[in-house]
From TrEMBL, chains A, B:
Keywords: DNA-binding, Transcription, Transcription regulation. One of its GO terms (molecular function) is DNA-binding transcription factor activity. Residues 4-72 form the HTH gntR-type domain. InterPro entries: GntR_C (IPR011711), TF_FadR/GntR_C (IPR008920), Tscrpt_reg_HTH_GntR (IPR000524), WH-like_DNA-bd_sf (IPR036388), WH_DNA-bd_sf (IPR036390). This is Putative GntR family transcriptional regulator. It comes from Arthrobacter globiformis (strain ATCC 8010 / DSM 20124 / JCM 1332 / NBRC 12137 / NCIMB 8907 / NRRL B-2979 / 168). The keyword Secreted does not apply. The keyword rRNA-binding does not apply. SMART domains: FCD, HTH_GNTR. Transmembrane segments: none annotated. Pfam families: FCD, GntR.
DNA sequence: ATTTGTCAGATGTCAGACATCTTGCGTCTG
DNA sequence: CAGACGCAAGATGTCTGACATCTGACAAAT
C-alpha cells in the first residue's frame, strides 16, 4: 500500500542524509546532476524533491551557487524537526518536549474557550464525556480514544483561534499512537474521565482560570503516564 | 531586488486564487496544462509551484484524478493561514489571535526556562534589559526593538524546547513589523522595560509560576497596546 | 445485470536543450 | 605589481516534447 512517488522517495532519502549529519546546517548538498545520478532518476525528479524540502525551509536554493541546509530552528515542518530531534539518544527527550508543547497549546486554548464557548459546544463536550464513560464500562478502547480526541478537538474549536488549530494539527498525528497505548490501561481511563469531567465543569462555569488549571492537571497526568511508559520500556 | 522565480510567482498567484475563494476547500484546481497556459509558463514550472503548495499541505495531489484544496486547518504554513485569515474584515481579529498564540508559547517557554536557565543566559538577559534602558534614554528605536527581540529569543532558547522555537520562528517574522510600530511610543517603552525587568527577576529567582505570570502580564500589555492601535487606525 | 474493454484526462517521469547567475582564474592593462 | 576585465566552469531556472501510469466513465461483450 501507499507506493510513494519517486520524488517522495528522493526527498525522504535526502532528508535522512541531512538528519544523519552528512550535510550539516550551512553546508551545501550535492548538485542536482549528482543526485539524479545517485538515485537513478531524472534531474526534474530531483528538482521536485528539492522543492518540497525548500517549501519546508529545510533547504535554501541559491541560483548559480548551490543548495544549502538551513539551521534546524528555521525548519517549518514539525515532523521533520521531530525526526531530527529523535535521532540517537534524544527520542525520550523529544517526546517530553512534545508533551510540553501540547500542554502550552491546550491549556491556552482551554483558557480562551472558557470565554467563548457556546451552549451547543458545551453539549458536545458533555456527550464526549458520556461516551468516554460508556466506552470505559464496555471496555472499548477504540471508542474511548475517539471520544477523548473529540473532546479535545471540540475545545480547540471553541477557542476560536485558527492558528492554534493549525499548529496543533501535526501534533495530533504524532501523539495519536502514544495516546492509544496509554488509554489501554483501565486505571488511566478512570483518571482521564475525572480530568475531563473537571475540565467540562470549569468550561461550563465559563471560568478561564479554573479551566486552565483543570486542563493543566490533565496534561500533567498525561506527562506522568508517558514517563512511566518510557521508564518501563 | 528579490526578483522572484517564476515558480514562486505561479505559486503565489495560485494561492491567492485559493484564498480569494475561487477554489474552496475540497474542490479541485485547474489541471497543469490549463494553468501553464493561463500563466504562460511550461508545465514543469506549474508542477514545481504545485509541489511547494503540496509540501505546505495546502494542496493534495492525486494521481489520475487531479489536485484538490485541503481544508484550512490542514495547512501547515502559518503564513499562508495568516494570509487567508486576514482577508476581508478579519485582519484585526487575526492579529488578536496571533497575539493570543504568541502568549501561549511565550508564557509556556518562560515557565520552562525558569527551571532550566543557566547563569550565562541570565547574564545575557540582564544585558538585554540594560540595552533597552540605554536605547530608551538615547531615543534609539531600532536598538530598543533589537534588544527586546534578543531578550525573548534568549528565553526561548533557555526553555530548551526545540519545538517551541520552531513554531515561534514564523511568528517572529510576522510580529516584527507591528512591534517596531508600538515601540516608537516612549510610554510603551517604559512599560516594556518594567515588564522585562520583572520577567528577568522571576527567572533569576528560578520561580516558574512567577516567571509565567510576569510574562503573561507583558503579553497582556502587548495585546492592549495592539488594541489601542487597531482602534485608533 | 455483470463483466470487460477502451478511451479521455490527469498526474508521474524522463531526456535534452538553452538561459542565466555566481565564482574563480587567467589575462590584460596601467 | 595591483587592479580591472573577460571568460569559462558549474550551478540552478526554464522550456519543449514525449511516454508511462493511474482513474473514472462509458460502451460493448458475455
Amino acid at each position: 500500500m501507499a507506493r510513494k512517488s519517486l520524488v517522495g522517495v528522493v526527498a525522504d532519502e535526502l532528508l535522512d542524509r541531512i538528519i544523519s549529519g552528512e550535510f550539516p546546517p550551512g553546508s551545501s548538498v550535492p548538485g542536482e546532476l549528482e543526485l539524479s545520478a545517485r538515485h537513478d532518476v531524472s534531474r526534474m525528479t530531483v528538482r521536485e524533491a528539492m522543492k518540497t524540502l525548500e517549501a519546508q525551509r529545510i533547504l535554501s536554493v541559491e541560483r548559480g551557487r548551490g543548495t544549502f541546509v538551513n539551521p534546524l530552528n528555521r525548519w517549518s515542518s514539525l515532523e521533520a524537526v521531530l525526526r531530527a530531534a529523535s535521532e540517537g539518544q534524544n527520542g525520550p527527550a523529544a517526546a517530553v518536549q512534545l508533551i510540553e508543547l501540547r500542554r502550552m497549546l491546550e491549556t491556552g486554548a482551554c483558557e480562551l474557550a472558557a470565554q467563548r464557548i457556546t451552549d451547543d459546544e458545551l453539549d458536545g463536550l458533555r456527550n464526549c464525556v458520556a461516551d468516554m464513560r460508556k466506552a470505559h464500562q464496555a471496555n472499548n478502547v477504540a471508542s474511548f480514544v475517539a471520544a477523548d480526541l473529540a473532546f479535545h478537538d471540540q475545545i480547540l474549536h471553541a477557542s476560536e483561534n485558527v492558528f492554534v488549530a493549525v499548529l496543533f494539527e501535526p501534533l495530533h498525528r504524532v501523539l495519536e499512537k502514544g495516546r492509544t497505548e496509554t488509554s489501554k490501561v483501565p486505571d488511566i481511563q478512570e483518571h482521564a474521565i475525572g480530568h475531563h469531567q473537571n475540565i467540562f465543569e470549569a468550561l461550563a462555569a465559563r471560568d478561564p482560570r479554573q479551566a486552565r488549571n483543570a486542563m493543566d492537571a490533565h496534561m500533567q497526568q498525561t506527562l506522568d503516564d508517558l514517563r512511566s511508559y518510557v521508564l518501563e520500556a
